[in-house]
Structure formats: structure tokens, C-alpha cells
Amino acid sequence: MTHRRWITAAAVAVATVAALNTVPATASRPYDPTAQSLGALGLRHKLHVGTAVDMAALNDANDPEYRRLAASEFSSVTAENAMKWESLEPTRGTYDWAAADQLVEFAKRNRQSVRGHVLVWHNQLPAWLTAGVADGSISKQELRELLRRHITTVVNRYKGKIWQWDVVNEAVSDPWDTPSTLHYKGFWAQNLGPDYIADAFRWARAADPRALLFYNDYNIEAFGSGNPADDKSQFVHDMVKGLLAQGVPIDGIGSQGHLGTQYGNYDTLQVTAALKRFAALGVATAFTEVDVRSELTEPGDSAEINPRLQASAANFSVLMKACLAVRSCLSYTVWGFSDRHSWVPEWFDDPPQGMATIYDENYQPKRAYHELKSDLIFAGPPYVLPRVAPRPRG
Ligand code: XIL
């Protein structure tokens, strides 16, 4: 080899090492990808693998493993509750930033990106707000102004520190709601009409020109009939298309990914197709709240538990593979990483559900964890290429 070719070869090796985020393997110390975290493995694809963080667990001195894994295993974090309006402004006019600030600091210390969750949602609103609207002491006009101020205040506080904001969450109904024809649902649509969605994105953009602004929803992992009257993915697709046509600064569609093993669910190619259809609008995509719950069975009954663990792992993997296949899919966030701290048992109790995360209650990695890891390890060119992020829309 000529000197010049050696230099080229060395440069390629260095670049490869940088891209793989690893040190070179040696005979005495072979490269072992299974020893890498999900976060590190994801970064090889420029994919951020994140988790929602429960601040009480993070601060529990008797539960150090929670903090250790939250810090080491993921390259992105989301506040499970700390950035919701009821947490930030429990009393009208008085913001309590302590928990949200703490998460942003934690992320900075651990070199993690932050998904901001959530600016506009019909749940977990402060009681003073919903009561004021209900008793008429807050007028519609005042409500709109309160929303504008809230978005501006929160986005401004974390300007430059949030990678992706969930600006509007769960604005669209489901086919099982009444009426069954899909429609804009909930507190904000009822009180302000659907225009609040465009307003919210414009207000968020005015406060932070650099954050990627997302619409976030569940039950949009795959397309169905293609009729927006009963296909929620199609409804959301058409909604975003319409917003973009009006020049609304929306940069991404977040698919929550709350699945259950008792349902039919989707295969990798269906989910890939859905992400591609969203991406064709010119927006980024992300899985933002992935968990795969099961109906619980007799404790310790392995004949029942094993199929659930396998089905859960398979569904986690379907979403991961689809995300890897589509370059616009920027992040894959799990909604809690351990069954010790998961919203599922609290929210789905009839029949009781659980086993929804990638680590068990003792922080032992489950089959789902290993499947995600192997998806990240075995993915590569030409089918899986690094992510490409859009520029935030002006
Ligand atoms: C959930 C939290 O995990 C719970 O701790 C809380 O009691 C209720 O909200 N979709 C969302 C999340 O966008 O904000 C929800 O989080 C789960 C469903």
C-alpha cells in the first residue's frame, strides 16, 4: 500500500470508529456489542433510544438502580409527568419548575437529549383551569390567552434545551368513542375549536425556533381502511397535511406505541409503511411512549407468562425495526423501562394488566430488552441508514 492509501485507510478506520461509537477491537479485547447500552447502539444509527422518567423513582435513595439505568442505558429522556400543566402550575400564576428543571439537568449531565412532554393535552390540567372554565369564571377568550401564555412560558424556559416538543397530544378521537366518526376530542377542541392546534404550534415556534415540534398520538402505528372517518392514522396524516398547507410549523408526528399482547397488532412492514406515509409529508417521526402490556395471569404460571413475554418482545421489536428502516424516525422512547415503575398496572386494572416494559421489577432485562438490543446490533446499510432530521420549520 502506498503512503497515501495508508492515510486514507486510517482515516476511514477512525471515521468508522467514531461512527460506531466504539473503541477498536483487539485480539485480547474483542468488540462486544452486547455490552453496549441501548442508547450507545442506537447512536450508531443516529437514533436516540429514550425513556420516560418518573421523578419520584429518580429521587428515591432506596432505589439506586433506577437512576443508574436511566442515566446509563438511554440517550434521551422524557418527563413522564413533570412537564404537564398540572405539575408546572398547580396554583394559578405560580410555576413550580423544580422537578422539570431537575430532569433537564439530569439529561445534561448524562449527555441525553430531552423530549419535552407535553404542552397541550386534555388530561392532567390544573384544577383551577378546568374548574374556572366549567363555572364560567374563565371565558373562552381568556382560556385561549392562558394557553398562549402557558406555551410561551414553558417553551421559553427550556429554549435550546429541548430537542423535540410534544406540542399537541391526543387531539383525535378513536373509533370506539361516541360518535364513532373520528373527530377532534377533549377539553381544548370543545372550548376553543380545532384551531387551537395551529395556534399552539405557532406559539411554540415563536418561543423556540430550533426545537422540533411534534404532534403526538396513540393508535396510529399502522394505517387501516384509509378512510379518515374510521382510520385514525389517516385522520392524523390528513390533519398534518392540512396544517402544513397552511404554513403551520409542525416538524414531526409522534406515534406513542402503547400496545397490548391481547390485541392483533401489526407486523414490521405495516408499521414501516405507516412511518413512510407520515415521512412523505416531509415531517420527522418518532416512537414516543412504547410499552407492550399484557393481561396478568396467576403469579409464576410459566405456561401463561412465557407467551406474554415473547409477544411483548416481538411487539417492541416490530416498532424498533420499522423505526430503523425509516430514516425520518429520530427516536424510540419507552414509557418507563422497568415493571417496578410503570403506569400500566395503575391505569389498566380491569382486568389487571402489567409486564409492559423491558426490565422486570428487579431490573433484570427481559426478552424485549434483548430483542431491541439485537435489532440495533444487526441493523446496518444498505437497508438501515442513519437518521436524517429535518430543519425546524420557520
Ligand atoms: C401517564 C403517566 O405515565 C402516568 O403516570 C399518569 O398518571 C398519567 O399519564 N399518553 C401520554 C402520557 O401522552 O402522558 C401518559 O402518561 C400515558 C398516555
TrEMBL record:
N-terminal signal peptide: 1-27
Name of the top EC class for this enzyme: hydrolase
Reaction(s) the record says it catalyses: Endohydrolysis of (1->4)-beta-D-xylosidic linkages in xylans
SUPFAM superfamilies, alphabetized: (Trans)glycosidases
Enzyme Commission number: 3.2.1.8
Keywords: Carbohydrate metabolism, Glycosidase, Hydrolase, Polysaccharide degradation, Signal, Xylan degradation
Stretches assigned to the GH10 domain: 52-375
GO BP field: xylan catabolic process
SMART domains to which the protein is assigned, alphabetical: Glyco_10 (SM00633)
GO molecular function per UniProt: endo-1,4-beta-xylanase activity
Stated family: Belongs to the glycosyl hydrolase 10 (cellulase F) family.
Name of the molecule in the record: Beta-xylanase
Organism: Micromonospora acroterricola
